[in-house]
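The protein record reproduced below.
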Amino acid sequence: MGKCKRFRAIGNQLALARLMWLLGGRMTALNIPEQCGVMLLPDCTLFPHGGLPLHIFEPRYRRMLEDAIEGDCLFAVGRLLAEPDGIEGFESCVAPVGTIGLVRASREMEDGTSNLLLHGVMRVRFLEWLGGKDYPFVRIEPVVTVFTPEGGEGAAMKTLRGAIEDAIQDLPEAVQQGVFALLDRAEEPGLMTDIVSQQFVNDPDLRQQLLEMPSAGARIPLICEYLRKAREGE
């Protein structure tokens, strides 16, 4: 990617990330349902606290959006690994962990399609694919981020921030300041890893791997190594 396009892409990502903070903060008081609809997308991973613009055009997902808006405004995004053959195929064709998100700024168009912004709320594990809907519908459980050992959070965040500083040192000053402003809002390692993963990790397999890892401490070395290789052009 050329430098101009790279700067513009990062700038757009930062603007979206800042909007997510303004709209929803950390969403700590939101109740997570036991079941929800799921939008299945190939090579698409949404992290908690991230934002995903979506154009809803398939009839099944239009109905899913209607149900969500009439209810709690929540649905999940899951990574589609292969085309499933009915409900029985979902378990083997969908990655086991996705993210439940809150519908933001949804706008229905004249042709019945909708444009919306989905705010990532929390990792969820897909437990059981259910029938009764004409769109993917699943029983879920929250995946809680942990950090061990206790007391090492500050050092871990410093390490990750240092890797980010090295990765973006050749970018314009305004872009760097936007990144640092975003990182300054991260109060703990789990949140920082999610911010960095959403904005800077492009490899779909690594993104999914990071999403499936409950340990924030285990995510940090993978992210740092990815950033190092990206900087060195490997």
User: Anything to note?
Assistant: Residues 1-12, 14-28 have pLDDT under 50 and may be disordered. The chain has two domains: 3-23+146-232, 31-142. The first strand starts at residue 35 and ends at 42. The chain is about 45% helix and 25% strand.
